[in-house]
Structure formats: structure tokens, C-alpha cells
Prior knowledge:
By secondary structure, the chain is an all-alpha fold. The protein is 76% helix and 0% strand. The protein has 8 helices and no strands. Helix 1 packs across helix 4 and helix 4 (54-74) crosses helix 6. The N and C termini lie far apart (57 Å).
Amino acid sequence: MKISQAQKIKNQRRIIESAVKVFLRHGYKNATIKEIAKESKVSEPSVYNYFPNKESLVFGYFELELMNTIETLNSQSLFLKLNFCEKIQSFIEAQLESLEKTRPFVEESFKFIFVTSSIHSSIEVMQQKKILTTFMKEHMVKSQKSGDFPTSA
């Protein structure tokens, strides 16, 4: 049975949210895909279908939080009226506030994934850089057009 793109996104979110709960309960190192599947009420193969390993679940979480922050900010008319510097400040504040909810998980993730691993050039990191760069470029161009951000002569 083929599932819709909307259902796939819903499944991914549920798996990521469940993974965070399991990581918080057992720690990243001791958490298993089996426990994550049970928590998210899907089969192990389904988890692996979306995320090939625990690292990709962690990156999925950070990408999800990044996308949620961007969607939230872009939907706020007040945010869209800010100048470029204010938008950057608002973005940073909103992203930090978003990550604060799961601070123990974020701290452990950074320790196991970003500090002790050589994964800095992974596809997942590149994808998040692309999302962030697109967001920044979009708002920089808008700010240049409105005169808030100087263009190079």
C-alpha cells in the first residue's frame, strides 16, 4: 500500500519525536531502534525506511526544529517587517528557544554526534546548511530590495 507524502512526513515526525523521548530516557548510546519503533508504534523496518541509523534520527530532529522555526517565523507578519539584523536575531532566539525544550538531548547529541564523530561533512549537515542558507538569502534579498541591507557597489 502506497502512502501519501503528507503521511510520510507525519510518520517521520512521530518517529523523530519518539526517538527524542527514548534518547532522553536511556541516553543516545543506550537507545535502540527497537525501542524507538515501539515508542512510535511502527515496525523496526519502518524506522529504518525513514532513518538508516540513530545518527540520522538526531540530524532529522535538528532539521525538523530548523524547519519548524523557519515556518513559524515566515508566517508571522511582524517578523516579515523586521530589518535583516532583527530577523537574524529573532531567528537565533527562536531556534535556541525551540531547542531549550530538549536541552539534555541536545547536549548529549552534540557530544556523541558533533564532537566525537567525524561526521561534520555528512549529507545531513549539508542539507541543514542548505535550508539555513536559503532562509538567510531569501531575507537578505528582501532586505536589499527594501533598502534595509546595503548592496555592494
